[in-house]
Amino acid sequence: MPDSTHDAHCAPFVPLPLALIRRLGAATLVVALAGSFVPAAPALARTPPPKAVLDASAVAVPDRYSADTAQQIFAAGGNAVDAAVAIAFTLAVTYPDAGNIGGGGFMTLYVDGKPYFLDYRERAPQQATRDMYLDDKGNPVPGMSLVGFRAVAVPGTVDGMWEAQRRFGKLKWKQVLAPAIKYATDGFVVEPWLQKRAEYASKSFAGKTNFSVYFAGLKAGATFRQPELAQTLSRIASDGGREFYEGKTADLISSQMYGHGLLSKTDLVQYKAVWRQPVTADWNGYRIVTAPPPSSGGVGLIQLLKMKADLKPAFAGLDLNSSAYIHLVAQIEDRVFADRQQYMGDPDSYHVPVDKLIDDAYLAQRADEVTPDEVPGATPVKPGLGDSMPERAETTHFSVVDKWGNAVSNTYTLNGPFGSGVVVDNAGFALNDEMDDFVAKAGTPNQFGVTSGDVNTIAPGRRPLSSMTPTILLKDGKVSLVIGTPGGSRIFTSIFQVMTNLYDFGMPPADALAAMRFHHQLLPPKTIYWEPYHPITGELAGQLKGLGYTLEGQKFNGDVQMIRVEGTTPEPAADPRGAGVGRVFH
Ligand code: GLY
């Protein structure tokens, strides 16, 4: 159980001393001799590139604690992958509504001049069934896939971090977990935004889960300590990433789920993160490297960017975010979401026609359908490849580059705020509610209002469709942009808008992030969502209504963390909508 002390005058958190980091690095890994999990292997010896190609390493991260972690890791000689893994574990402690070890995500990497993609998305438990969230009349039971034991899918984060760090990291596994363990043990000072998120979650979980037992102490100004989580992370540090799936942590998860949820020890033992080919495309002189299925985000982002480029004459002379501009973008978005609904799912269950969906000729033909005279909703937008085949978004993103020119773009999630609200007893971390990213009943929208057909129904072992879009842009083989955001189905429309601001409108990074963002998707039809940060009001609102749109406020439209590299200089930038931090390490 966590321990929190409300002390407005408490001393600031002291980062882990470098001397301690070095000592841990030199320490022999403690390898458990008993048990069936794979013992911790030392990081593979790799020869670093001979010299730095950038002036500095840099991060754009969602909180200041993870920026301090990155500083320690780079100071200890770690690379971008070491920093990314250390950031991910730190956020599991200091950003517990979305940072996690009980969820999953995607990592896009560029290491030693090559692109990689790691899928550590959650999977449906073996006992999951297609209709598990339907009542006896065949209708989805509200909330069932969002709150409590039955909403939980098999977590992938720890295996993902273990895979990435073993393959590409330079430091010892224990070294990259050390900052997170320190924050869990000694605590961190809670910011007001985290208190608000915890209060919000507490209301929705009241009487349904054990959430408050663990997270009631998240009060602004308090030092929040998580001793059980510290023990869990220490076991993972000592015994390796498979401890989570095969050791004591697995036993704690499965014994709590027994008789309540579907997740079993077998599901955990069988879980493996998967290396996949990233989706790549050429656009505007850049090579885009982004997320493949089971994310819809990479394909969606490329479709948006290419169709907008095809429509250059129509966009010519239009002011950014004028009603005419928004009207054209909304029509492009209708087409992207129609394809998403029809074709996108787990690539290990279905053939997802990625190449066809990002094909230049196909997208040019789809862009041809977009016209300034379109009356919103008048002609239903259908998927473009024909009938070939039978997800507030508490996700978080961080971007990392190191001075050797490597980059990591990582988005991971618990899905809803603090996931399912179920906290693993005696282990101290929240479990996801990623099962809601499946379609409970074909054609019925999830919490993001997006729907899918058969391609995203529940089946044992299947991965739910995601929108997470960790992306890297290359120019002449070198990293030029690292970008991503939380936001569910708003993820790739947000990244699209920031990239458009940067490259089509030539804005500096801070302005590109601060500019107004809107969202539109196929359903509900004719709806333009605006955000509190930059509401759509006055003349613009009147013009959009005049075109036939309904305007709808939404609580959240992303928290983009990005790093642009200009020449040899990394420029990190954090979205002003959140508490993110951009930091450069010389
Ligand atoms: N749970 C949000 C996503 O995967 O896109």
Automatic annotation (TrEMBL):
Mod. after translation: Cleaved by autocatalysis into a large and a small subunit.
- UniProt entry keywords in alphabetical sequence: Acyltransferase, Glutathione biosynthesis, Hydrolase, Transferase, Zymogen
Kindly give the Gene3D superfamilies that the UniProt entry links to this protein: 1.10.246.130, 3.60.20.40
The record lists the catalysed reaction(s) as:
an N-terminal (5-L-glutamyl)-[peptide] + an alpha-amino acid = 5-L-glutamyl amino acid + an N-terminal L-alpha-aminoacyl-[peptide]; an S-substituted glutathione + H2O = an S-substituted L-cysteinylglycine + L-glutamate; glutathione + H2O = L-cysteinylglycine + L-glutamate
- Molecular function via GO: glutathione hydrolase activity
The pathway it acts in is: Sulfur metabolism; glutathione metabolism
Spell out the residue ranges making up region: Disordered.
Answer: 370-390
SUBUNIT field = This enzyme consists of two polypeptide chains, which are synthesized in precursor form from a single polypeptide.
Family indicated by similarity: Belongs to the gamma-glutamyltransferase family.
**This chain belongs to which protein, by name?**
Glutathione hydrolase proenzyme
